[in-house]
Amino acid sequence: MLPSHTFVSLEASPCFQSLGEFLWLDGTIQGWWNDQRIRMFRRTTSYFFGFLDTILRILGFVETIFAVTAKVYDEDVSRRYKQEIMEFGSPSPMFTILATLAMLNLFSFAFCVERVVVDIQIKALESLALQIILCGVLVLINLPVYQGLFFRKDKGAMPNLCHIQISFFSAVGLFNSLVLVYCISKKSLYRNFISLI
């Protein structure tokens, strides 16, 4: 059996190779990190849109339509690009999906940290350490999304329409997860009660 550090090195070596190539071609670490974020964002949204398009096409609801996006040159957009700040200015279903997933990750991470720190549940930390770390990394990756949602006031911030959609979808996702946790805890309480009898 291979030691766990072998798997870590196998996973990390392509990242270090791409970082080296990016820096060799006069890029910056911030630019490389944004490129990694964009790759993750594209994978997340393209799989969802591809799945949704396939299901809708099979059911005969929608034909695929090619939508042309605006490609207008703007000084503010150019300035933000040179400063390596992510642009969220135009409303898009992609941003709604990304921000909803980012909010759910933030809620999950906050819940895990609260459970481990406040309730001092070391068992949760021992059994779910890798999941907590993964959730924390996803929160770090999504920092520009949180900035676009809450802190930026320029034209590159998330549009207001996205805020409403994100709030709704995040609330639905959070409610579903709370119901699931409640049902699982009730089931385990029921099993414990039955085992006592």
How would you explain this protein's 3D organization?
This protein has helices at residues 4-24, 29-59, 75-82, 93-117, 122-127, 129-141, 143-151, 160-196. The chain has a domain at 88-197. It has eight helices and no strands. It is globular and about 55 Å long. With 197 residues, it is mostly helical.
Task: Give a quick summary of the entry.
The chain is mostly helical and 197 residues long. The chain has helices at 4-24, 29-59, 75-82, 93-117, 122-127, 129-141, 143-151, 160-196. The model has no long low-confidence stretch (mean pLDDT 76).
Sequence-ordered SSE layout with sheet pairings:
Elements lengths: L3 H21 L4 H31 L15 H8 L10 H25 L4 H6 L1 H13 L1 H9 L8 H37 L1
Helix pairs in contact: 4-6, 4-8
Overall pLDDT confidence: 76
Q: Give helix % range.
A: over 70%
In angstroms, what separates the terminal alpha carbons? Answer: 43 Å
Parts with pLDDT < 50 across at least 5 consecutive residues: none
Radius of gyration: 21 Å
The succession of helices and strands, N to C, reads: HHHHHHHH
Helix tally equals 8
Biggest sheet, in brief? none
